[in-house]
Amino acid sequence: MINKRTPIEKIVSPIQSFIKQEKAGGIVLAISVIIALIFANSSFAEEYHHILEHRFGFRWDGNTYFEYNLHHWVNDGLMAVFFFVVGLELKREIIGGELSNPRKALLPIVAALGGMVVPAVIYLCFNPAGEVHSGWGIPMATDIAFALGVLYLLGKRIPLTLKVFLTALAIVDDLGAVLVIAFFYTSDISLLHLAIGALVLLTMYIGNKMGVRSILFYAILGVGGVWTTFLLSGVHATIAAVLAAFTIPADVKINEQMFSNKIQGLLNRFNDIDPDNSSPTLTNEQLHVLEKIKTSTVEATPPLQRLEHAMHPMVTFIIIPVFALANAGVSLAIDVEQLFSTNVAIGVALGLLIGKVAGVVGFTLLLVKLKVAPFPEGMNVRNLFGLGLLASIGFTMSLFVTSLAFSHEVYKTQAKIGIFAASIIGGILGYYVLSKQAKNRTPN
Questions:
Q1: 37: nearest Cα among 284, 428, 333
Q2: What does the alpha-carbon distance between residue 124 and residue 120 come to, in Å, rounded to a whole number?
Q3: From 47, 105, 278, 327, which residue has the greatest number of CB atoms within 10 Å?
Q4: pLDDT tens, per residue, the chain with 444 residues
């Protein structure tokens, strides 16, 4: 029997279908960037920037603690959640994903390294000294949501191996960005707070090894302990989120075969129960069986994957768009002379657009020519070039590093315009190259 959909299901269903699409995150992020640019270049520009400067904190016994403006809370608070999910993805990939097989992982890892080193070198060639020198980390980053969003617009015309390669490359790139932030974009360090944070991390690790699978346990220690102490230590709080993610258990209490047998037995038991046809509700015995099915499902799912699956939509459709709204609002009324008063914009733009492509393509071809690693099935020089162009899309991570690299608003604006220019050009060219290659592969 087919159940008739309720009115609310008819409303929610299209939204759920959109969210499940791989390209949805990139689309929402693009819309958020456009909205931020509209606000920053409209009559509401002053109100837009004023809202971001509102300060929030916690008052206790007449004193205020953790008092930061809204922009700071977004970048250090919400983005910590984003980096926590990045950490979960990294651990999953290292344990059982594309990065778990050294031979398979070698090519995207080296491609990612090339895509970080070459852009930084290009930027430093244009900005060798002064405060602008610190922006070298900006063009190193790839925006995984945008890059994969563009790739998935091409649908099934693109070989799965290309999608896997770009995903692995972007994840390694994220790890590189985390390390760069940890070692090069931190303020004065408080060793006391850092030591306390390390002890809390150790407690979480021991809890993992002892078999603690409670999400609440890791949430309380992760937020109340690790994130807070790292925030006070001077080491960027997003690093705490990645480290906390690596302490989340990735094992299961029952394996797949045991789970399948257990669920089958419970389903048989559920079917054998005589239902109370006079009532629309379930019997107590039915509820008891369903509760056991739920418990078994939790036992068969690694807490790491449970968290990642639960948090991914929130990060993709709330946190990253809010970050874009708070950071992408750049006034385009800047005059050309001011835009090029330093080489920040040109260094960022060329670092992303030229450096990413040269690094990703060059390092990959080097390994293939040396016969260290072969091309994945379906990959050739042309679609590798297209992937390199998509890797030049820097938005989220590049904007985040910009907020850490510069205190001067003019430099921030110049960097953001460089990011926008390179990302838009790289995304369009990458789509064009890959779509043309896909047409050539399509049989007549």
A1: 333
A2: 6
A3: 327
A4: 445 666 666 555 655 564 555 667 778 888 888 998 899 898 888 898 888 888 887 777 767 767 778 888 888 788 888 889 888 888 888 888 777 777 778 898 999 999 999 999 999 999 998 889 999 999 998 887 778 778 877 777 777 788 888 888 888 888 888 888 888 887 667 889 889 999 999 999 999 999 898 888 998 999 888 988 888 887 777 788 888 999 999 988 888 899 999 999 999 988 888 776 667 778 888 899 999 999 999 889 999 999 988 888 888 888 888 988 888 888 877 778 888 889 999 999 999 999 999 999 999 999 999 988 888 888 889 999 999 999 999 888 898 899 889 988 899 999 999 999 999 999 999 999 988 876 665 444
Q: Which residues contact 270 (CB under 8 A, 6 or more apart)?
A: 286, 289, 290, 293
| pTM for this entry | 0.79
Amino acid at 279: S
- Residue 16's identity, in one-letter code, is Q
5: three-class secondary structure by DSSP: coil
Run of H or E including 55? strand 55-60
Q: How many CB atoms lie within 10 A of CB 348?
A: 32
The answer for residues whose C-beta is within 8 angstroms of residue 86's C-beta and 6 or more apart is 171, 174, 178, 241, 242, 245
Report whether 303 contacts 248 (CB < 8 A): yes
Residue with tokens 């094992």: 251
**What would be the CATH architecture of the domain defined by 24-186+236-251+302-441?**
Up-down Bundle (1.20)
